[in-house]
Amino acid sequence: MTFFSKRLALVALGLGAALLAASCGAVRKTTVPMTTNLEKSGCMRDADTLLVMLPGAYSTPDEFEREGFVQALRDNRVAADVMLVDAHLGYYNDKTILERLSADVMAPARSQGYRKIWIVGISVGGFGGLLYAQTHPGELAGLVTLAPYLGERTLSTDIANAGGIASWKGPLVDPAEAAPRTPNDTQLWQWLRGYAGFTQTGAARPPLYLGYGIDDRFAFSHRLLGAALPAERVFTTEGGHDWPEWLRLWRRMLPTLPLQSCPV
């Protein structure tokens, strides 16, 4: 795939030049089914809660272990299993991310008895988690997004110029395209307006937690989204777009999340 065709595919999905500029490396090939790795709770044999962790564009799922995310769950005695998902940029590129999450992660999890499923997404993984919540209302118990990619800066600028997400209405959406296979970033922001109290569908939205570094390259968009959320669900830290910042945020957020604790 040439750079030009790769860029067109990403822009069509809503993943534009800002994400390409923020990333490096080659797009890996997708597999069916998507590769996953289940980490069982260290304190409960049959946990009913599953945390689905989605990495950044070119990250691998084992980085959640290497960088301390799984250990932080143990340190906080969270009674939940963890599913590490190899949801790399290739799945966004070919627009199969939502299909594969549904078929390879969510459906098997429900059949295995998990009653509460959360998505924890970093960068483009946060974008994927938001898209999944948008297109599968009522399925998620909660959503944690760390430094999520939220679309092109020009769109965020339009929202800011309108006075923020509560005032912005965005372009009209053709009813025939209101629920596309993979929504674009404009449609995502229209859905996110529901967190500011504006929704046309009344569809359930999971509790949304946002964390980001104040010097993150996407912080302009993060602040716009954060303004629509309860203050206790927005977390910031010094620094930019990298694992040390994300781990600091994760460790701060964990004790505030409504997750079951290990039995004493």
Topology pattern, helix = H, strand = E: HHEEHHEHHEHEHHEHEH
First CA to last CA: what distance?
Answer: 54 Å
Overall tally of domains: 1
- Across the major sheet, the strand order is 1-3-2-4-5-6-7
CATH topology-level fold name = Rossmann fold
Q: In percent terms, what proportion of residues is strand?
A: 5-15%
CATH architecture: 3-Layer(aba) Sandwich
Structural class: alpha/beta
Q: Profile the largest sheet.
A: 7 strands, mixed
How many H/I helical runs? 11
The named CATH superfamily: Alpha/Beta hydrolase fold, catalytic domain
Average pLDDT score? 88
- The unreliable regions are 1-12, 20-24, 174-180
* Helix fraction bin: 25-40%
Question: Can you describe what's shown?
Answer:
By secondary structure, the chain is an alpha/beta fold. The protein has one domain: Alpha/Beta hydrolase fold, catalytic domain (Rossmann fold), CATH 3.40.50.1820. The protein is built from eleven helices and seven strands. The protein has helices at residues 3-13, 17-22, 63-66, 69-75, 89-93, 97-111, 124-135, 153-161, 185-192, 219-226, 243-253, and strands at 36-39, 49-54, 81-85, 116-122, 142-146, 208-213, 234-237. A seven-stranded mixed beta sheet has the order 1-3-2-4-5-6-7, with helices on both faces. Helix 10 links the parallel strand 6 (208-213) and strand 7.
